[in-house]
Design a protein that fits this description.
It comes from Limnochorda pilosa. The protein is mainly alpha-helical. The protein has one domain. The longest helix is centred in the N-terminal third of the chain and has 23 residues.
Length: 228
């Protein structure tokens, strides 16, 4: 789990540097920085979504995943978790948007293929290189988001540890599930979720991306069935 710990450390370090910059960053500049990150997120999501070899798989996965996610209301659960953390640390960030600062990076850090394959390689082969690369990207993203949204970004390191750590520990079993076609379709589906995050960051809409997360599990199943 070395790579996961490096990833967590990068998120924490980037967040803390961002919080330090936030004290001196004019609000107008902070807003422009957030818009720039939002545009970059849209680009990343678009690149990821083009990985699909069968556009019907992400389509059906998002439809079925949305139904499951809305039934479970995962977005509300994430927001409640963020609000619960906010109540405990409100005095540290009285002017921040804590829930948004927690939910946005949490989704960004977890939906991509690097989180899955990096954790598998880390746990199964002891190869942390993919997660080290992800750590660099996540650290920069955490810095940018913390400088604009506040202390909530720090706490996104917790889901990173739990999610990637669980995959790394179960890597022996997980590796058999994540064949190249499966990873490709999960990447494409995750890319569409990342586009949704970018839309929210740019205030172009209000997508409940958290309720689309089950699509990643659905596409895993569909891609394996189609690949047989």
């Amino acid at each position: 789990m070395t790579g996961t710990w490096i990833n967590v450390a990068a998120v924490l370090a980037g967040s803390l540097v961002g919080l330090a910059l936030r004290r001196t960053l004019p609000e107008r500049v902070a807003g422009t920085v957030l818009q720039g990150v939002g545009l970059a997120v849209l680009l990343i999501g678009a690149q990821m979504s083009l990985e699909t070899g069968n556009v019907l798989l992400p389509l059906f996965s998002l439809a079925l995943g949305a139904a499951v996610g809305e039934a479970l209301d995962l977005e509300a659960a994430l927001e409640r978790l963020g609000e619960g953390l906010q109540r405990r640390v409100a005095r540290l960030d009285p002017g921040g948007r804590f829930t948004e600062a927690f939910v946005t990076p949490t989704l960004l850090f977890l939906v991509g293929p690097m989180a899955i394959m990096g954790a598998i390689n880390d746990g199964l082969l002891g190869d942390s290189s993919l997660l080290v690369t992800k750590s660099l990207l996540d650290g920069i993203t955490a810095l940018a988001l913390a400088s604009t949204l506040g202390v909530g970004v720090v706490f996104s390191a917790i889901p990173v540890l739990l999610y990637q750590g669980a995959i790394a520990l179960a890597a022996g079993t997980a590796r058999a599930l994540f064949t190249d076609p499966v990873v490709r379709e999960m990447t494409a589906t995750g890319g569409l979720l990342v586009i949704g995050i970018g839309i929210n960051m740019l205030r172009l809409g209000s997508m409940r991306v958290g309720n689309l997360l089950p699509a990643l599990a659905v596409v895993l199943v569909l891609a394996r069935l189609v690949g047989r």
